[in-house]
């Protein structure tokens, strides 16, 4: 049997037994000063939205574009915020394509808890790069996902590209 070490997953495991943190995780990211962006995995701040690495990614470079507005209702976004959400999504796809050369992408929002939203009260767009063969038997049979790059490395690679824009 082959052993895969994923030490960053321990934070996730421990978080399920830790006392709940109050407030919205996304709002806390926005309220933190920009000098905490690396710690919070924030890659870019726009006027209405920001781009952040997913702390528990499905694949390397799994990002989210998140409006500053704390709402789970897509219809509550002002047109400028909705336009920036999509513009930052396009920019992120372009940056991930240049840096990681994926063969495809999954883009999407889960609106509402019943639709699968983990954070239902603050909408967010997922951007998940995909490669042929990235979904093997491990998640299906072993209930384990293998991420071949740590978040700090991913952050450094993507932040450099976002900074150039």
TrEMBL record:
The keyword Nucleotide-binding applies. The keyword Hydrolase applies. SUPFAM superfamilies: HIT-like. One of its GO terms (molecular function) is hydrolase activity. Transmembrane segments: none annotated. The active site is at 124 (tele-amp-histidine intermediate). Residues 25-137 form the HIT domain. A motif (Histidine triad motif) lies at residues 122-126. Keywords: Hydrolase, Nucleotide-binding. Substrate binds at residues 54, 126. This is HIT family hydrolase. It comes from Candidatus Viridilinea mediisalina.
């Amino acid at each position: 049997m082959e052993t895969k070490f994923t030490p960053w997953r321990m934070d996730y495991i421990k978080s399920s037994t830790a006392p709940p943190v109050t407030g919205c995780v996304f709002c806390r990211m926005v309220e933190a000063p920009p000098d905490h962006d690396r710690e919070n995995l924030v890659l870019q701040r726009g006027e209405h939205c920001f781009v952040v690495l997913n702390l528990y990614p499905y694949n390397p470079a799994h990002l989210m574009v998140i409006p500053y507005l704390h709402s789970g209702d897509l219809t509550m976004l002002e047109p400028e915020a909705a336009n920036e959400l999509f513009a930052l999504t396009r920019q992120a796809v372009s940056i991930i394509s240049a840096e990681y050369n994926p063969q495809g992408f999954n883009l999407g929002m889960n609106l509402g808890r019943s639709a699968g939203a983990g954070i239902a009260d603050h909408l967010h767009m997922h951007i998940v790069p995909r490669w042929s063969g990235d979904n093997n038997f491990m998640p299906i049979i072993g209930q384990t996902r293998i991420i071949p790059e740590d978040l700090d490395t991913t952050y450094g690679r993507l932040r450099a590209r976002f900074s150039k824009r």
